[in-house]
Amino acid sequence: MSKIIHWGIIGCGDVTEVKSGPALQKAGGSQLAAVMRRSGELAADYARRHGVPRWYDGAASLIADPGVDAVYVATPPSTHMEYTLAAAQAGKPVYVEKPMGLNTAECEAMIAACGQAGVPLYVAYYRRGLPRFRKVKEWLDTGAIGEPRFVRTLHMTKPLAAVSEENWRVDPAISGGGLLLDVGSHTLDLLDFLLGPIKDVNGHASNFGSPYKPEDTVSGRYRFETGVHGTGIWCFNAFSNEDVTEIIGSRGSITFSTFAEQPVILRTEDGEYPEFIAHPPHIQQPLIQSIVDELLGCGTALSTGDTAIRTSRVMDELVRNYNGR
Q1: How far is CA 184 from CA 105, 189, 191, 254, in A?
Q2: Residue 145 Cα distances to 17, 48, 274, angstroms
Q3: What percentage of the chain exceeds 90 in pLDDT?
Q4: For the chain, where are the E strands, in sequence order?
Q5: Residue 324: which residues within 8 A CB-CB, separation 6 or more?
Q6: CB atoms near residue 47 (< 10 Å)
Q7: Could you tell me which residues are beta bridge partners of residue 5?
Q8: Which of 80, 147, 142, 141 minimizes the C-alpha distance to 107?
Q9: pLDDT at 165 over 70
Q10: pLDDT by residue (tens digit) across 77-127?
Q11: Res. 325: pLDDT tops 70
C-alpha cells in the first residue's frame, strides 16, 4: 500500500458532510479520492463542494476504482454487510459506520469475509478517539478513582416529534431496531473501551406508545470481564432529555455525558475536578487517524470489527425479549 491511503465513500450523506468526509481529507497520510451516491446528481454535487476528484452512482464502480485503496461505508445499517463483503472481495480495507450491522449474525459474516480476504475491518465508534473520553480513560488507567466497582447510565430523550418513511433509524428493516442501536450503541461501545468487554447481559425492552415498530425503552444489567457491574436505561419516550454515565470506584467517581457538551468530572474525597475538553471540528478525525496509521504500519486502530461486534452482541441481548432473537 502507498504512503497515502486513498479513500472512497459509499453513501456520501449527512454523516459525511462534517463528521467524517473532511476528516478523511485532513488526517495525515489520507486522501478522499472518490464518492458514491445512488443519485449521480447528488454525488457530483458532493464531489464539487468537497473537492473530490471522482464520483459514482454505483457502489461496484467505486469499489473497482484502482485509485481507491480503502472503502468507507457510510450508508444505513441495512447495506453495511453487502458493501463490506463486496469491498473485501476486491481486497480493500473497510471502514463501516455504526452500528456495524443489523445484528450480531451480520457482524460475524462481515468479520469472516474480511478475514478470509485478508483485509482489515474498522467501525466508526469514534468516541474512542475523542480527547474528552481519552481523559476518562487516563483517569481510570492511573487509578484516580481506585478500583472501578460499578457503572450506571441514564439516557432519556423526549419522543420523536414526527415519524416518517424518511426516518430510517426507527425502521428495523433498515436500522436493525430502535434508537438503542443508533444512539445507545455509542455509550455501550465507550464502556467497552473504558472498562473492557462485557461478559454477562440481561435486558428488557418495551414500546410505551411510540408510533413506530421497535422498542423505545431498554433497561439492562451487565457484568464486565473485569468483574465491574453495570446498569443502564435508555428511554426515548420521556418528558425531558438527560444523558449521564457515572463510573464509581473504591476511591472516587467519574461522570460524563456521551453526547452533551459538558465537562467530564472526577470526584474524590479531596474534591471535584471538572474538565471541559472540546471536540475537534471533524469528530471522526482522531479515530480515522488511528485507522490510517495502522494501514500505513505505524499505529493501532482504536475501533475494529472485533471490538464492535461485542457491542452488537450486548445490544442483541438487551432487546432479545422484545425482538425474540
Answers
A1: 19, 9, 11, 19
A2: 39, 50, 14
A3: 96
A4: 5-10, 30-36, 54-56, 70-73, 94-96, 121-123, 148-156, 198-206, 217-224, 229-235, 242-249, 252-256, 264-268, 271-275
A5: none
A6: 21
A7: 30
A8: 80
A9: no
A10: 999 999 999 999 999 999 999 999 999 999 999 999 999 999 999 999 999
A11: no
**What pLDDT is recorded for position 283?**
98
Q: How far apart are CA 41 and CA 80, in angstroms?
A: 23
Q: What is the tens place of the pLDDT at every residue in 175-206? A: 999 999 999 999 999 999 999 999 999 999 99
Q: In sequence order, which residues have a C-beta less than 8 Å from that of residue 102 and are 6 or more positions away?
A: 77, 78, 80, 81, 175, 176
**Lookup: cell for 254:** 467519574
This prediction has a pTM of 0.96
CB-based contact 158:210 (threshold 8 Å): no
Residues 5 and 39: their CA atoms lie apart, in Å, by 26
Distance CA 42, CA 323 (A): 36
Whole-angstrom Cα distance, residue 255 to residue 245? Answer: 6
- Tell me what pLDDT residue 143 has: 98
Residues with Cβ within 8 Å of 114's Cβ and at least 6 positions away in sequence, in order, are: 84, 88, 94, 120, 121, 305
| Type and span of the H or E element at 288 | helix 285-295
Which residue, chain included where needed, has cell 458532493?
A: 46
> Which pLDDT band holds residue 161 (cuts at 50, 70, 90)?
confident
120 by Cβ neighbours in 10 Å (0-12 / 13-18 / 19+) ranks as buried
- How is residue 202 written as a grid cell? 440481561
